[in-house]
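Changelog entry

Holo records now carry the ligand SMILES as an explicit input line rather than a separate metadata file. Below, a converted record for S-adenosylmethionine, shown in the new format.
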Amino acid sequence: MNEQVDAEERRVLDVYAERTKQDGDAYAWWQADVQIQWFRHAQALARALQAAGRQDLSSQRILDLGCGRGAFLRRLVGWGANPRQLHGFDLQEGRITAARAIGPADIDFRVASGFRIPLDPGSVDVVYLGTVLSSILDLTYWDKMATEIGRVLAPGGDLLVFDMRYRSPRNPNVRPVTPALLRGCFSGWTLRYQSLNLVPPLARKIRWCPTLTLLLESVPFLRGHCMYHLRRSESCDV
Ligand SMILES: C[S@@+](CC[C@H](N)C(=O)[O-])C[C@H]1O[C@@H](n2cnc3c(N)ncnc32)[C@H](O)[C@@H]1O
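Structure line, unchanged by the conversion:
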């Protein structure tokens, strides 16, 4: 199994190396559609954390798996999380180097895989996966990651998953993340979710008119992402 996991990690690294060349500034922070999505993400995240009873972030031990350059954890620090209690792991060395350069210095940013998380059992309260599962095409590896998440989460811990709802017409290297797939993978966990964000191809096309974006995103089936909240119960499979 270890060789297969190595191969899956290499596949993801190759896909991202290629994609980084193609993306240009489509997802740059100054784009109006990216700003709107980031705001909607904050709203959905705040709602999920509040529903989970985790309003006081200062005491929470949080792992961002597939953390990229660390923007999610920096957002939580802005909301009161203690950098010393935060871990950000990613397969890509370049992204971890960038995350460390931006900081804060006390966050544990490391090159590490979600298939073999270098943390002790039950050592985190919340795990976040931001558009990570959609990068993993073979569901066998979802199960592998789910087992690792189940191992490191404390009893009663929460998993937040932000990801795409629909197949991408232009990117064969991603797959949608649906409630049914998550239920299959995290059997026995409770699941709640909300949709958000106008589907990205349309949002990019009309980024010159934020008012139109806000109008269209009020139509539920035009929303391209979901924020999922899964809670691990004390007696479940994973
Ligand atoms: C689409 S990016 C999202 C990055 C970040 N979560 C965000 O929302 O900006 C997905 C990230 O997951 C990472 N990733 C994919 N599979 C992984 C794995 N098995 N272990 C750790 N990181 C992984 C990729 O390297 C990439 O940085």
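Spot-checked after migration. The domain at 2-231 is CATH 3.40.50.150 (Rossmann fold). The first strand starts at residue 62 and ends at 65.
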